[in-house]
Specification:
The chain is α+β, with helices and mostly antiparallel strands. The N and C termini lie far apart (about 90 Å). It contains eleven helices and ten strands. The chain binds adenosine-5'-[phenylalaninyl-phosphate] (FA5). Adenosine-5'-[phenylalaninyl-phosphate] binds next to strand 6, strand 8, strand 9, strand 10 and helix 10.
Protein backbone atom coordinates (compact mmCIF):
# COMPACT_ATOMS: atom_id res chain seq x y z
CA UNK A 1 0.00 0.00 0.00
CA UNK A 2 2.86 2.32 0.76
CA UNK A 3 4.16 1.83 -2.77
CA UNK A 4 0.72 2.41 -4.22
CA UNK A 5 0.41 5.67 -2.26
CA UNK A 6 3.86 6.73 -3.44
CA UNK A 7 2.95 5.96 -7.08
CA UNK A 8 -0.34 7.83 -6.73
CA UNK A 9 1.50 10.83 -5.30
CA UNK A 10 3.97 10.97 -8.22
CA UNK A 11 1.27 10.50 -10.86
CA UNK A 12 -1.03 13.09 -9.26
CA UNK A 13 1.83 15.62 -9.14
CA UNK A 14 2.37 15.12 -12.88
CA UNK A 15 -1.36 15.52 -13.57
CA UNK A 16 -1.53 18.71 -11.50
CA UNK A 17 1.53 20.01 -13.29
CA UNK A 18 0.06 19.43 -16.74
CA UNK A 19 -3.40 20.97 -15.98
CA UNK A 20 -3.66 24.17 -18.03
CA UNK A 21 -7.19 25.36 -17.14
CA UNK A 22 -9.26 25.44 -13.93
CA UNK A 23 -11.47 22.79 -15.57
CA UNK A 24 -8.48 20.43 -16.09
CA UNK A 25 -7.61 20.87 -12.44
CA UNK A 26 -11.11 20.05 -11.30
CA UNK A 27 -10.90 16.81 -13.31
CA UNK A 28 -7.61 15.95 -11.54
CA UNK A 29 -9.24 16.55 -8.15
CA UNK A 30 -12.16 14.25 -8.99
CA UNK A 31 -9.76 11.61 -10.36
CA UNK A 32 -7.89 11.33 -7.07
CA UNK A 33 -10.34 12.43 -4.38
CA UNK A 34 -13.73 11.68 -5.94
CA UNK A 35 -16.02 10.04 -3.41
CA UNK A 36 -16.83 6.92 -5.39
CA UNK A 37 -14.13 6.46 -8.02
CA UNK A 38 -11.38 8.63 -6.50
CA UNK A 39 -8.07 6.71 -6.69
CA UNK A 40 -7.07 7.54 -3.12
CA UNK A 41 -10.34 6.15 -1.78
CA UNK A 42 -9.87 3.01 -3.83
CA UNK A 43 -6.46 2.44 -2.24
CA UNK A 44 -7.80 3.21 1.22
CA UNK A 45 -10.39 0.48 0.87
CA UNK A 46 -7.46 -1.96 1.40
CA UNK A 47 -6.89 -0.61 4.97
CA UNK A 48 -9.42 -3.01 6.42
CA UNK A 49 -7.13 -5.97 5.56
CA UNK A 50 -4.13 -4.55 7.45
CA UNK A 51 -3.02 -5.00 11.05
CA UNK A 52 -3.82 -2.28 13.56
CA UNK A 53 -0.19 -1.10 13.48
CA UNK A 54 -0.09 -0.91 9.65
CA UNK A 55 -3.51 0.72 9.58
CA UNK A 56 -2.19 3.53 11.76
CA UNK A 57 0.94 3.96 9.66
CA UNK A 58 -0.85 3.80 6.29
CA UNK A 59 -3.68 6.02 7.51
CA UNK A 60 -1.15 8.71 8.47
CA UNK A 61 0.71 8.27 5.17
CA UNK A 62 -2.58 8.57 3.18
CA UNK A 63 -3.44 11.77 5.06
CA UNK A 64 0.00 13.21 4.26
CA UNK A 65 -0.42 12.37 0.58
CA UNK A 66 -3.90 13.88 0.57
CA UNK A 67 -2.96 17.13 2.27
CA UNK A 68 0.18 17.45 0.15
CA UNK A 69 -1.81 17.03 -3.04
CA UNK A 70 -4.57 19.38 -1.84
CA UNK A 71 -1.99 22.09 -1.24
CA UNK A 72 -0.58 21.57 -4.73
CA UNK A 73 -4.11 21.74 -6.22
CA UNK A 74 -4.88 24.89 -4.27
CA UNK A 75 -1.65 26.57 -5.46
CA UNK A 76 -2.17 25.52 -9.05
CA UNK A 77 -5.84 26.65 -8.91
CA UNK A 78 -4.79 30.12 -7.78
CA UNK A 79 -2.21 30.28 -10.51
CA UNK A 80 -4.67 29.20 -13.22
CA UNK A 81 -7.42 31.60 -12.08
CA UNK A 82 -4.92 34.48 -11.99
CA UNK A 83 -3.74 33.64 -15.51
CA UNK A 84 -7.35 33.57 -16.78
CA UNK A 85 -8.00 37.03 -15.27
CA UNK A 86 -4.76 38.35 -16.78
CA UNK A 87 -5.76 37.02 -20.21
CA UNK A 88 -9.19 38.68 -19.94
CA UNK A 89 -7.71 41.99 -18.87
CA UNK A 90 -5.21 41.75 -21.71
CA UNK A 91 -8.00 41.29 -24.24
CA UNK A 92 -10.03 44.18 -22.77
CA UNK A 93 -7.11 46.50 -22.23
CA UNK A 94 -8.01 50.14 -22.33
CA UNK A 95 -5.71 53.13 -22.25
CA UNK A 96 -7.70 55.72 -20.33
CA UNK A 97 -5.11 58.38 -21.10
CA UNK A 98 -5.79 58.24 -24.87
CA UNK A 99 -7.79 61.23 -26.21
CA UNK A 100 -11.49 60.38 -26.84
CA UNK A 101 -13.07 60.10 -30.28
CA UNK A 102 -14.66 63.40 -31.31
CA UNK A 103 -18.31 62.90 -32.33
CA UNK A 104 -19.15 64.45 -35.70
CA UNK A 105 -21.76 67.18 -35.29
CA UNK A 106 -23.92 68.39 -38.17
CA UNK A 107 -24.63 72.07 -38.58
CA UNK A 108 -27.03 74.41 -40.33
CA UNK A 109 -26.95 74.14 -44.14
CA UNK A 110 -25.52 77.27 -45.83
CA UNK A 111 -28.87 77.76 -47.59
CA UNK A 112 -30.61 77.92 -44.22
CA UNK A 113 -27.91 80.14 -42.68
CA UNK A 114 -28.50 82.80 -45.34
CA UNK A 115 -32.28 82.33 -45.26
CA UNK A 116 -32.41 82.85 -41.48
CA UNK A 117 -30.15 85.92 -41.70
CA UNK A 118 -32.41 87.43 -44.36
CA UNK A 119 -35.48 86.64 -42.29
CA UNK A 120 -33.93 88.48 -39.34
CA UNK A 121 -33.14 91.55 -41.44
CA UNK A 122 -36.66 91.61 -42.93
CA UNK A 123 -38.27 91.06 -39.54
CA UNK A 124 -36.31 94.04 -38.23
CA UNK A 125 -37.94 96.06 -41.05
CA UNK A 126 -41.41 94.91 -39.96
CA UNK A 127 -41.98 92.10 -42.50
CA UNK A 128 -43.92 88.89 -41.68
CA UNK A 129 -42.36 85.56 -42.71
CA UNK A 130 -44.82 83.22 -44.46
CA UNK A 131 -44.58 79.68 -45.76
CA UNK A 132 -46.53 78.42 -48.77
CA UNK A 133 -47.46 75.17 -50.53
CA UNK A 134 -44.84 73.68 -52.82
CA UNK A 135 -47.62 71.91 -54.72
CA UNK A 136 -49.51 75.00 -55.88
CA UNK A 137 -52.62 75.48 -57.97
CA UNK A 138 -52.25 76.73 -61.53
CA UNK A 139 -54.46 79.62 -60.42
CA UNK A 140 -52.14 81.03 -57.74
CA UNK A 141 -48.91 80.12 -59.55
CA UNK A 142 -49.98 81.73 -62.86
CA UNK A 143 -53.53 82.95 -63.42
CA UNK A 144 -53.88 85.19 -60.35
CA UNK A 145 -50.52 86.69 -61.37
CA UNK A 146 -51.94 88.04 -64.60
CA UNK A 147 -50.56 85.05 -66.52
CA UNK A 148 -53.49 83.27 -68.20
CA UNK A 149 -53.21 79.92 -69.94
CA UNK A 150 -51.15 80.05 -73.16
CA UNK A 151 -49.44 83.29 -72.08
CA UNK A 152 -45.93 83.19 -73.68
CA UNK A 153 -44.20 84.07 -70.39
CA UNK A 154 -45.19 80.62 -69.07
CA UNK A 155 -42.55 79.17 -71.41
CA UNK A 156 -39.70 80.43 -69.25
CA UNK A 157 -41.23 78.69 -66.23
CA UNK A 158 -42.03 75.22 -67.50
CA UNK A 159 -42.72 72.90 -64.62
CA UNK A 160 -44.07 69.57 -63.48
CA UNK A 161 -47.87 69.31 -63.68
CA UNK A 162 -49.60 67.02 -61.23
CA UNK A 163 -52.93 65.30 -61.78
CA UNK A 164 -55.60 66.53 -59.44
CA UNK A 165 -58.23 63.91 -58.57
CA UNK A 166 -60.92 66.50 -57.89
CA UNK A 167 -60.21 67.87 -61.38
CA UNK A 168 -61.25 71.44 -60.59
CA UNK A 169 -57.82 73.07 -60.72
CA UNK A 170 -54.51 71.95 -62.19
CA UNK A 171 -51.73 71.49 -59.65
CA UNK A 172 -48.12 72.37 -60.39
CA UNK A 173 -44.84 72.09 -58.54
CA UNK A 174 -44.58 75.84 -57.99
CA UNK A 175 -42.16 77.59 -60.31
CA UNK A 176 -41.65 80.57 -58.02
CA UNK A 177 -42.67 81.87 -54.62
CA UNK A 178 -44.81 84.57 -56.28
CA UNK A 179 -47.92 82.40 -55.89
CA UNK A 180 -47.96 83.52 -52.26
CA UNK A 181 -48.48 87.16 -53.22
CA UNK A 182 -52.21 86.77 -53.86
CA UNK A 183 -52.68 84.22 -51.08
CA UNK A 184 -51.11 86.69 -48.58
CA UNK A 185 -53.16 89.68 -49.82
CA UNK A 186 -56.38 87.64 -49.64
CA UNK A 187 -55.60 86.55 -46.09
CA UNK A 188 -54.13 89.73 -44.56
CA UNK A 189 -55.38 92.59 -46.81
CA UNK A 190 -53.52 95.93 -47.02
CA UNK A 191 -51.26 97.35 -45.73
CA UNK A 192 -49.01 94.30 -45.81
CA UNK A 193 -45.27 93.50 -45.62
CA UNK A 194 -44.33 89.84 -46.12
CA UNK A 195 -41.48 87.65 -47.26
CA UNK A 196 -41.89 84.02 -48.35
CA UNK A 197 -38.73 81.93 -48.50
CA UNK A 198 -39.09 78.49 -50.08
CA UNK A 199 -38.24 75.75 -52.50
CA UNK A 200 -39.32 76.05 -56.13
CA UNK A 201 -39.08 73.76 -59.15
CA UNK A 202 -38.56 74.10 -62.87
CA UNK A 203 -38.38 71.66 -65.73
CA UNK A 204 -35.00 72.71 -66.99
CA UNK A 205 -31.53 71.39 -67.75
CA UNK A 206 -29.07 72.05 -64.97
CA UNK A 207 -25.71 73.81 -65.29
CA UNK A 208 -23.39 75.74 -62.98
CA UNK A 209 -26.05 78.36 -62.15
CA UNK A 210 -29.34 76.54 -62.95
CA UNK A 211 -30.94 73.67 -61.12
CA UNK A 212 -34.38 72.05 -61.36
CA UNK A 213 -34.91 72.61 -57.62
CA UNK A 214 -33.75 75.82 -55.99
CA UNK A 215 -34.78 78.44 -53.44
CA UNK A 216 -36.32 81.85 -53.82
CA UNK A 217 -37.51 84.46 -51.39
CA UNK A 218 -40.58 86.43 -52.35
CA UNK A 219 -41.10 89.89 -50.95
CA UNK A 220 -44.26 91.96 -51.06
CA UNK A 221 -45.01 95.35 -49.60
CA UNK A 222 -48.36 97.06 -50.21
CA UNK A 223 -49.36 100.34 -48.63
CA UNK A 224 -50.38 103.86 -49.56
CA UNK A 225 -47.80 105.81 -51.62
CA UNK A 226 -45.31 102.98 -52.12
CA UNK A 227 -42.83 103.72 -54.90
CA UNK A 228 -39.76 102.27 -56.61
CA UNK A 229 -37.63 104.34 -54.22
CA UNK A 230 -38.88 102.17 -51.31
CA UNK A 231 -37.98 99.04 -53.26
CA UNK A 232 -34.44 100.18 -54.05
CA UNK A 233 -33.85 101.27 -50.45
CA UNK A 234 -34.84 97.82 -49.15
CA UNK A 235 -32.65 96.06 -51.72
CA UNK A 236 -29.60 98.09 -50.73
CA UNK A 237 -30.03 97.34 -47.01
CA UNK A 238 -30.44 93.68 -47.80
CA UNK A 239 -27.48 93.18 -50.10
CA UNK A 240 -25.07 94.93 -47.77
CA UNK A 241 -26.43 93.03 -44.79
CA UNK A 242 -26.13 89.63 -46.40
CA UNK A 243 -23.01 89.89 -48.58
CA UNK A 244 -21.17 91.92 -45.94
CA UNK A 245 -19.29 93.94 -48.57
CA UNK A 246 -19.99 96.57 -51.16
CA UNK A 247 -21.09 94.99 -54.42
CA UNK A 248 -21.77 96.46 -57.83
CA UNK A 249 -25.37 96.06 -58.94
CA UNK A 250 -27.30 97.17 -61.99
CA UNK A 251 -31.00 97.66 -62.48
CA UNK A 252 -32.42 97.07 -65.94
CA UNK A 253 -35.95 96.72 -67.28
CA UNK A 254 -37.40 93.22 -67.03
CA UNK A 255 -40.76 91.82 -68.03
CA UNK A 256 -43.01 89.86 -65.69
CA UNK A 257 -46.79 89.92 -66.27
CA UNK A 258 -47.44 90.52 -62.56
CA UNK A 259 -45.42 93.77 -62.20
CA UNK A 260 -45.54 97.08 -64.00
CA UNK A 261 -42.94 98.45 -64.37
CA UNK A 262 -40.63 95.43 -63.90
CA UNK A 263 -36.87 95.29 -63.30
CA UNK A 264 -34.01 92.89 -63.05
CA UNK A 265 -31.36 93.57 -60.47
CA UNK A 266 -28.09 91.93 -61.53
CA UNK A 267 -25.07 91.54 -59.33
CA UNK A 268 -21.50 91.81 -60.53
CA UNK A 269 -20.34 88.16 -60.40
CA UNK A 270 -18.44 87.61 -57.16
CA UNK A 271 -16.98 84.31 -58.39
CA UNK A 272 -14.91 85.92 -61.18
CA UNK A 273 -15.04 89.58 -60.11
CA UNK A 274 -16.90 90.42 -63.31
CA UNK A 275 -14.26 88.90 -65.61
CA UNK A 276 -16.61 86.14 -66.85
CA UNK A 277 -16.93 82.51 -65.76
CA UNK A 278 -19.28 79.51 -66.11
CA UNK A 279 -21.49 80.77 -63.26
CA UNK A 280 -22.27 84.13 -64.93
CA UNK A 281 -22.07 82.53 -68.39
CA UNK A 282 -19.11 84.80 -69.20
CA UNK A 283 -21.25 87.91 -68.89
CA UNK A 284 -19.68 89.23 -65.69
CA UNK A 285 -23.20 89.82 -64.28
CA UNK A 286 -25.56 87.40 -62.61
CA UNK A 287 -29.34 87.77 -62.65
CA UNK A 288 -30.28 87.74 -58.99
CA UNK A 289 -33.23 89.80 -58.02
CA UNK A 290 -36.19 90.48 -60.32
CA UNK A 291 -38.69 92.95 -58.97
CA UNK A 292 -41.21 95.62 -59.83
CA UNK A 293 -44.36 97.45 -58.83
CA UNK A 294 -47.29 95.10 -58.24
CA UNK A 295 -49.61 95.04 -61.28
CA UNK A 296 -53.12 96.47 -60.57
CA UNK A 297 -54.65 93.16 -61.80
CA UNK A 298 -52.71 91.30 -59.11
CA UNK A 299 -53.82 93.71 -56.39
CA UNK A 300 -57.38 93.16 -57.62
CA UNK A 301 -56.98 89.36 -57.43
CA UNK A 302 -55.76 89.87 -53.85
CA UNK A 303 -58.90 91.87 -53.01
CA UNK A 304 -57.04 95.19 -52.70
CA UNK A 305 -58.22 98.48 -54.23
CA UNK A 306 -55.51 99.54 -56.73
CA UNK A 307 -56.72 103.13 -56.75
CA UNK A 308 -55.92 103.43 -53.06
CA UNK A 309 -52.90 101.18 -52.61
CA UNK A 310 -49.69 100.41 -54.48
CA UNK A 311 -46.85 98.09 -53.74
CA UNK A 312 -43.66 96.41 -54.82
CA UNK A 313 -42.75 92.75 -55.12
CA UNK A 314 -39.51 90.89 -55.68
CA UNK A 315 -38.40 87.30 -56.21
CA UNK A 316 -34.89 86.95 -54.85
CA UNK A 317 -32.85 84.01 -56.21
CA UNK A 318 -31.86 82.76 -52.78
CA UNK A 319 -29.71 79.88 -54.02
CA UNK A 320 -27.71 82.20 -56.26
CA UNK A 321 -27.28 84.66 -53.41
CA UNK A 322 -25.80 81.85 -51.31
CA UNK A 323 -23.42 81.06 -54.19
CA UNK A 324 -22.29 84.69 -54.30
CA UNK A 325 -21.92 84.95 -50.55
CA UNK A 326 -19.65 81.90 -50.24
CA UNK A 327 -18.06 81.86 -53.73
CA UNK A 328 -19.65 78.50 -54.67
CA UNK A 329 -18.85 77.68 -58.27
CA UNK A 330 -21.59 75.15 -58.99
CA UNK A 331 -25.20 75.42 -57.80
CA UNK A 332 -25.62 71.63 -57.77
CA UNK A 333 -23.20 71.28 -54.86
CA UNK A 334 -25.81 72.87 -52.60
CA UNK A 335 -28.29 70.03 -53.00
CA UNK A 336 -25.70 67.26 -53.39
CA UNK A 337 -25.74 66.36 -49.69
CA UNK A 338 -21.99 65.83 -50.01
CA UNK A 339 -20.45 66.17 -46.54
CA UNK A 340 -17.00 66.98 -47.97
CA UNK A 341 -18.57 70.11 -49.44
CA UNK A 342 -20.94 70.94 -46.58
CA UNK A 343 -18.42 70.64 -43.76
CA UNK A 344 -16.61 73.74 -45.04
CA UNK A 345 -19.39 76.02 -43.83
C1 LIG B 1 -39.38 84.84 -61.04
O1 LIG B 1 -39.39 83.70 -60.62
C2 LIG B 1 -40.36 85.87 -60.56
N1 LIG B 1 -41.38 85.22 -59.80
C3 LIG B 1 -39.63 86.93 -59.77
C4 LIG B 1 -40.43 88.14 -59.48
C5 LIG B 1 -41.11 88.25 -58.29
C6 LIG B 1 -40.45 89.21 -60.38
C7 LIG B 1 -41.82 89.39 -57.97
C8 LIG B 1 -41.15 90.35 -60.08
C9 LIG B 1 -41.83 90.43 -58.87
P1 LIG B 1 -37.23 84.48 -62.46
O2 LIG B 1 -37.74 83.38 -63.27
O3 LIG B 1 -36.30 85.41 -63.13
O4 LIG B 1 -38.41 85.34 -61.83
O5 LIG B 1 -36.49 83.87 -61.19
C10 LIG B 1 -36.11 84.67 -60.12
C11 LIG B 1 -34.68 84.38 -59.68
O6 LIG B 1 -34.58 83.00 -59.38
C12 LIG B 1 -33.63 84.59 -60.78
O7 LIG B 1 -33.20 85.92 -60.80
C13 LIG B 1 -32.53 83.68 -60.34
O8 LIG B 1 -31.74 84.29 -59.34
C14 LIG B 1 -33.30 82.54 -59.73
N2 LIG B 1 -33.43 81.41 -60.67
C15 LIG B 1 -34.25 81.32 -61.75
N3 LIG B 1 -34.13 80.12 -62.34
C16 LIG B 1 -33.20 79.45 -61.63
C17 LIG B 1 -32.65 78.13 -61.74
N4 LIG B 1 -33.02 77.27 -62.65
N5 LIG B 1 -31.72 77.76 -60.82
C18 LIG B 1 -31.35 78.64 -59.85
N6 LIG B 1 -31.84 79.86 -59.68
C19 LIG B 1 -32.76 80.28 -60.56
Amino acid sequence: MKKELEKLLQQAKKDIESATTPKDLEAVEVKYFGRKEGQLNLILKGLKDLSAEEKKEMGAKANDVKSHLQLLIEDKGQHLRGAAIDAKLESEWLDVTLPGKKPVFGHTHPMSVVQYELEDIFKSLGFMVLDGPQLESDYYNFQALNTPEHHPSRDSQDTFYVKNKAGNDKLVLRTHTSGMQVRAMQKYGAPIKVIVPGRVFRYEASDASHDNTFYQMEGLMVDKNISIANLIAIMKVLLKGILKRDVKVRLRPGFFPFVEPGFELDINCLICGGQGCSVCKHRGWLELWPCGMVHPEVLKAGGIDASEYSGFAFGLGLTRLVMMRYGIEDIRLLTSGDWRFLKQF
